[in-house]
From TrEMBL:
Residues 1-17 form the signal peptide. It comes from the Bacteria. One of its GO terms (molecular function) is hydrolase activity. It comes from Enterococcus alishanensis. InterPro entries: DUF915_hydro-like. PROSITE patterns: PROKAR_LIPOPROTEIN. This is Alpha/beta hydrolase. It holds the Pfam family DUF915.
Length: 292
């Protein structure tokens, strides 16, 4: 009888323990990942078939912005799908094709005469935008370095927004001398520049200002500038104030404008487009999902 009693008690203990174990194994409620969270501790990015077009600066080559594209491609943030070479006469040579996949496709534009003036480059950029429209592309993002930004804005100011060209959604400008090489830092602090524009205006800036109505409104623009150190308002080539010179002008024009200034050795003019922090700044601006 005693053995039977012990057996029953042991059986009850086993059943109770099994029930507790099963209860602990019940699936826990999952936290839904939204477009405003991080996944696995990494920044998440929107993916679409909107191409991003890259324009190099004066004397630029395949490597000038190609390194940025390669690094972002390795992180699976973008996919290089097309390279467009522009001849001196404006004719285009196309390598690759757009897949229409939601992989944030990149298009790198290379000028055969990479030291030509901004007026000719403005025409070539217009040719690229016209070509893309004929290929069924309606919207693009743009990334430029140095003179590439100067020529892009000159193209927009010269030709305007028509049905013949693509629409620019976002524009990331890296170290572009929009006020030529005038350094106004001795005359005004950066906050004043951002509020009122440059204290001294170059012919280039005046052209932009006088043709502002041709520039499309509602472009989301990020201006990136460099400083060699905290006391130096230049990236070694382009004054910080020149790279930010168009801020107030475009903001008053109903464009959304932001800026970021990088400081240190990797903020030198030619190193900016090789700086991983600039890579991430551009990626977050173009495709990043902001945390709530």
């Amino acid at each position: 009888m005693k053995k039977v009693f012990l057996f029953v008690v042991l059986l009850i203990v086993i059943v109770f323990a099994a029930g507790c174990t099963q209860q602990n194994k019940q699936p826990q409620p999952k936290t839904n990942e939204t477009s405003q969270t991080k996944k696995n501790g990494q920044d998440t990015y929107e993916k679409s078939n909107v191409p991003t077009v890259y324009f190099h600066g004066y004397g630029g080559t395949y490597q000038s912005l190609g390194g940025m594209i390669d690094r972002l491609e390795k992180q699976e943030i973008t996919k290089r799908e097309m390279v467009i070479r522009v001849a001196v006469d404006g004719r285009l040579s196309i390598d690759g094709a757009l897949s229409s996949q939601n992989n944030n496709p990149s298009i790198q534009v290379l000028f055969d005469d990479n030291q030509n003036n901004e007026w000719n480059q403005a025409e070539w950029i217009h040719n690229v935008f016209t070509y893309l429209k004929t290929q069924g592309v309606s919207q693009i993002n743009v990334v430029t370095h140095s003179m590439g930004g100067v020529s892009l804005v000159r193209s927009l100011a010269t030709y305007g927004q028509t049905d013949e060209v693509v629409t620019i959604n976002k524009f990331a400008s890296i170290a572009a001398p929009y006020n030529n090489f005038l350094d106004t830092s001795s005359q005004q602090i950066v906050k004043e520049l951002l509020r009122n524009g440059p204290a001294e205006e170059s012919d280039r800036y005046i052209f932009y200002r006088d043709h502002l109505d041709n520039i499309p409104t509602n472009i989301n623009i990020k201006m990136i500038a460099g400083k060699l150190d905290k006391q130096t308002f230049t990236d070694g080539t382009v004054p910080t104030t020149s790279a930010l010179a168009l801020f107030s002008l475009l903001k008053a024009h109903n464009d959304t404008v932001s800026y970021e200034v990088f400081t240190g050795a990797n903020a030198q003019h030619s190193r900016l487009h090789e700086n991983p922090k600039v890579d991430q700044s551009v990626a977050k601006f173009l495709w990043g999902i902001k945390a709530s």
